[in-house]
Amino acid sequence: MPQPSWKVNEIFYSVQGEGKHTGMPAVFVRLAGCRMNCPFCDTKYAAREGAETDAKQLLARLAAWPAKAVIITGGEPAEQNLPALIAALKDAGYEVHIETNGSIDADVSRADFVCVSPKKYVSPAMLKKADVIKIVVGQDTDLEDLQKYYAYENAKTQIYLQPESNKQENIDLCVKLLKNHPSARLSLQTHKLANIR
Asked: For this structure, is 34 an active site residue?
């Protein structure tokens, strides 16, 4: 039986710069491929470029670093065999975090943490599976449309607002929104502010 493999754009060791786990050392596994083509995307290079990598190769690369947390990002991870990747990492003893746009209803039941960052389309089923719903906010954001995500907030799922590109006008807008909805949180891209990868 053929072993699963994934088209991997890059693997690197760094510190989580966004959201609930800001400051946590982790290995980032960036999968290739994304159909969204968002104009503000800061990882457009991952849309197509990648090398086929099986579980054995992936785990050998991860073993080079001491962190036991792995963040699967993209591209869009759910466009590949995400459940098999989560299983391979969990079976090897890793804590698995997923960063997805939520457009595909994927089985993420074995993941330790799921961040859904809605873009043009998002699956309501994925919003219900999210630990965090991270909304990128810019000057073109439909603020009325943004309100619908608050309905998914509960004891498990928290809303984070992330200013697009860390621009001051977007930070100001997020702060204004947060003051009107104080259960949500601000997520700055601290890795960019600190100039770390």
From this structure: yes
The active-site residue out of 18, 79, 99, 164 is: 99
Long-range Cβ contacts of 33-36 (<8 Å, 24+ apart): 33/7, 33/74, 33/75, 33/76, 33/79, 33/80, 34/74, 34/75, 34/76, 34/79, 34/101, 35/76, 35/79, 35/103, 36/76, 36/101, 36/103, 36/119, 36/120
The mean pLDDT of the chain is 95
**Mean pLDDT, to the nearest integer, of 95-113?**
98
Give the active site residue among 12, 42, 91, 172.
42
Catalytic, out of 10, 41, 54, 105: 41
Residue 43 annotated as catalytic:
yes
Active site residue 115: no
- Active-site choice (10, 22, 43, 153): 43
pLDDT on residue 1? 65
The answer to pTM > 0.90 is yes
Based on the residue annotation, tell me whether 174 is a catalytic residue of this protein. Answer: no
Q: Are 97 and 112 in contact (CB under 8 A)?
A: yes
Q: Say which of 18, 21, 28, 79 is annotated catalytic.
A: 28
Residue 87, pLDDT score: 98
